[in-house]
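User: Need the bound-state model for protoporphyrin IX containing FE:
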Amino acid sequence: MMVMRWQLAYPETPVPFIGEFLWENGILLPEVYNSLGAMHGTIMIFLGVVPLAVGAFGNYFVPLQIGTIDMAFPKLNMTSYWSYFVGGVIMVASFFTPEGAARSGWTSYPPLSVFEPGQTLWLIGMVFLITSSLLGSINIIVTIVQLRAPGLKWMRLPFFVWAQLVTSFLLVLAFPPLEAAAVLQLMDRVVGTSFFLPTGLVVSGEMVAATGGGSPLLWQHLFWFLAHPEVYVLILPAMGIVCEVIANNTRKPIWGYKSLVYATVFLGFMSFIVWAHHMFMTGMGATMSAFFQTTTMIISIPSVVILTAFFLSLWGGSIRFNTPMLFALAFLPMFGIGGLTGLPLGLSASDIPLHDTYYVIGHFHYVVAPGTIFALFAGIYYWYPKMTGRKMNETLGKLHFWPSLIFMNGIFMPMFIQGLAGISRRLWDGGAIYSHAADTLWLNEVMSVSAWLLGIVQLVFIVNFIYSMKKGEKAGRNPWDATTLEWVAPSPPIAHGNFESEIEVHRGAYEYSVPGRTRDFTPQTEPKKSDN
Amino acid sequence: MEIPYTVEERPDTGLNNSKLGIWLFLASEIMLFGGLFSAYVFLRMGAPDGAFHEWGQELNIPLATVNTLVLITSSVTMVMSWASLKMNEFSKYKLYMGVTLLCAVGFLVIKYFEYTAKFDHHIYPSTNTFMAIYFTLTGLHGLHIIGGMIVMFYFWFPGSKMWQTEPEHFANRIEVLGLYWHFVDLVWIFLFPILYLL
Ligand code: HEM
Ligand SMILES: [Cu+2]
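Assistant: Bound-state model below.
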């Protein structure tokens, strides 16, 4: 990405430091630009956020938060991990093959993707990654349903666990159609079928030697049937983390816990019937458009319910502004911007001019970058003491947070402006050929500089992460005075079995500042009779 | 410490872990084949009138009928092998599981002859969209059969030692394997009419 932003800010000037070793004249080649773009999306989503949010946080904290000793199927977990590993290696290795990495976008639309080099490895890699996610999410569901500690009723689960449960259901049900689509595309590439190639297709002025009869739209349907639920896979675990951090640092029960749970489950169901809002440009007809815009508007309601519950939770709390809380607080408006800018995209009339412009890029990056990624940072700062027994440094944490917030917005806010001016996504020259958008081109430099600075700021995080492991302030079992079960275990938890003794649960997840009690928090394990 | 509910049922959910696991896995399998079925419908709607039916004439209905019967038999013997375990008759289990395995082999052999007959007539997946989806669906189904066979073989021979030490756990595993096998069977029951008859 950093290299791509050079090309966008200073088109056709040599890339400093590395350019001269890689390409003639040191200028980023268009093909390579396309590869980097496609792989950026793929890696960030399938190798970055999903494994971190579901694989890492889910696997580590779901058993802890439900008070059990391990995941339900430890061997399945290993299989899932190795499948992920192999998929990751294939993806990364594809850069070093003579063909280069895939370059048809993370969406891999045919017919282009059937002809471009690099795609075969991408598809094989995806099959492994999908398998890994499937096994992992089956494991998470079984763990939550079967291994909850005695007394941990459904409505006593921390919201994070609910978020992981719904996310896993989305993965189990939405990923297989993409696996099917990947198999079909592999067939097209390897044995010459025409699932996605229409009759009479002409490429570079020549008739394609395939029987035809297929349809590129078939891919789009199968792809978005996964990829819309996938966006909720990216956001729900983030909301789960934010909920934990907010409840803990406002010292208040979360506002409307039940409505949060119902909204999340409803959101999960709805996310299966909105996919074609990515396809308004395909000429699918007014009835279909009307259906999908309606469902899209309906699905934004639970998102708003969730966001509102979080905002209301802040009201009247005595907020502790520590680093995890700062990231969680920043998540709220950032996700808000991302969600609200989604609404015009969900209505076909306003989507048609906006489709495939930088506006769309701005929209989803607001939800995943300053949204999900901030939430993941909040989670890391919040749970670091549990994982290592030490807290991360607060000063460095704040030094990480504030610049990150500024530069994130520096990157993504201008995208809305450029998009509204009509600049398309995936352009090698950053829109220089669009005369009508000439007066927004200077923003490219702003975005690129922000991106590089953002990259540099992350070094503070890395330093803090490593430094605190040895030198951080010692944290006991429960450094944040929290109520949920993971804080009952020693920090770090016992390698085999998490807890020292069996857990029994007596109350809901967020009993903070209950009037009349001596402490402002009551752990879930505290028996009822000790009240007052 | 032991992971709870690997063998016995959790009282409030009425399930043990592997049973819930296999149901979830089958749900994802339904979505996988569902995706491919919808591709079939999509391609059929896009093809010229009657073309799918005409292309389908190349297929060998008698062989496929035999194969359907073979698979149904194997599902029955699979249930019998589990029931034998429940009745504590290990040798019968061995017998029925062996028959099931044999049926699976038979199915693949017949499928092999069907495939090679097509190739001999220069019919390949790339011939038309019907053949493309035919080979994809039956090929993927065949892979599921092979997967099932590997597990069956394991529990038939090397893995059956477990019966001596943990009989209930072993019977549960066979039950879960059975659920998978019935699913694979059911997929074929769908594939047979839509590919061969329609
Ligand atoms: C809350 C309400 C939301 C609505 C109404 C909405 C609506 C839309 C629409 C209609 C598009 C298609 C635009 C186009 O291609 O022309 C889109 C694209 C996208 N959205 Fe959202 N969205 C919402 C939330 C989210 C969330 C929570 C995420 C992720 C965490 C997300 C991630 C994406 C992504 C990744 C794309 C672009 C995919 C691509 O074309 O590469 N959206 N959104
Ligand atoms: Cu969507």
